[in-house]
Design goal:
With about 450 residues, this protein is α/β, with parallel strands linked by helices. The chain is built from 14 helices and 11 strands.
Length: about 450
Amino acid sequence: MSLKRGRYSGYIRPISYVIDLILLISLCSFILGLFEGIILFLTYLVLGWILSTAIIGYYEIYRFTKSIKVVTLALKQFLFFGLILFAFFGIFSQIYQFPTKLTLTFLSCFFIASLSMKLGIYYALKHYRLKGGSRRNTVIIGNNKSTKALEAVFTQNPIYGYRYLGFFTNEEIQVKDKLGNITDAIEYIAKNNIDDIYCSISELSGTELKELTKFANSNFKTLKFIPDSTEVISSGFEVDYYDHFPVLKLNESELTKPTNRIIKRVFDVCFSLFVIILILSWLTPILFILIKLESKGSIFYVHERNGLDYKKFLCYKFKSFKTNANDDEHVSKEDNRITKIGRFIRKTSIDELPQFYNVLKGDMSVVGPRPHMLAYNKSYAKQVDEIQFLARHTIKPGITGLAQIRGYRGEIKSDTDIIGRIKHDVFYIKNWSLFLDIKIIFQTAVNLITGEEKAY
């Protein structure tokens, strides 16, 4: 998921996370001292911190979050983290023994340092936004009592950092804030770098709402809804409050949370290093000889793919085609472009292993939607008009994915194939968990051993 949140403010959470971990390690070493087994202890504390922040939502601070909520989150976080800390001493009481007073001193100092840093950043950002920095361009679609109330929140609270530009409505009125009719909204939003779109549900037809949702997903815009009554709120939405004014948003993927993005990235790096060191280090020289026996040039096939936010990147594979073969078309079952060794490494998916270098570089993830050839992306988007095809580019592409283990890998022969693939990709994005990633990796390994029908 992209870090873009009003220019640079999306980087605040990861930076805060790193600072807290540095504070944790430094204060622990300084107050409790350097002792035998400190590495195990610090590892436990770091993992405990990561787990507790994910559960409490310690870093879930938004533009409209009140300072009292920041303090409340900190209290909950450190109470939970304190339980984790003392649980360690309970489990390893025979090995680690610290005076309770010293442990509480460490926990208190960490609490004060972390909260001070958090509030310092919170108020610094408020001041920066008050001066005109870190603004998010915002428009409203609709014109009624509810939209006027939200407009007042934006215009009367510059400290939130929203730049309200106007509204769209089909009403025949002449006011300076009216930017056009509802049908003009998409073109205006695309041309004017709009970040957030707020819609009055009652003023949009089903078709207009569908088109707007599709546009927002495809162009990575934030789309939120203004309820006309609390009856609109359902399990499909989350509710944010802007000065007690409710705003609805569709339930987001767990990967919108910075903590989960960090967890996924750490897992990607560790798993990639494992594969590169323990497998590719000896397998690459062997494949170098075997591939060279059948084709000239590099043993790697490098091709462009669309990745996160639809940006292009160079994707690596072991070469499986004959020299000078046309590689712009999908591989079919009896494809004569494939070499003998190429057929084997494709059948076993060994040809995909160099993509662990892509993961290490940050272009890809171990698990995610598989990247398509550039030439096919536009045609696939047309085939699945009712599904938000480009939503799959809101996270990094993967070496394997949920769609692949469910049989939607390889050649696309019909609309059913691509529709099934995209549905599984979207389900994965909305329901991500580290456990799901591990489950997909395990099932991928099982499929490689048992064989797959579309692996060619």
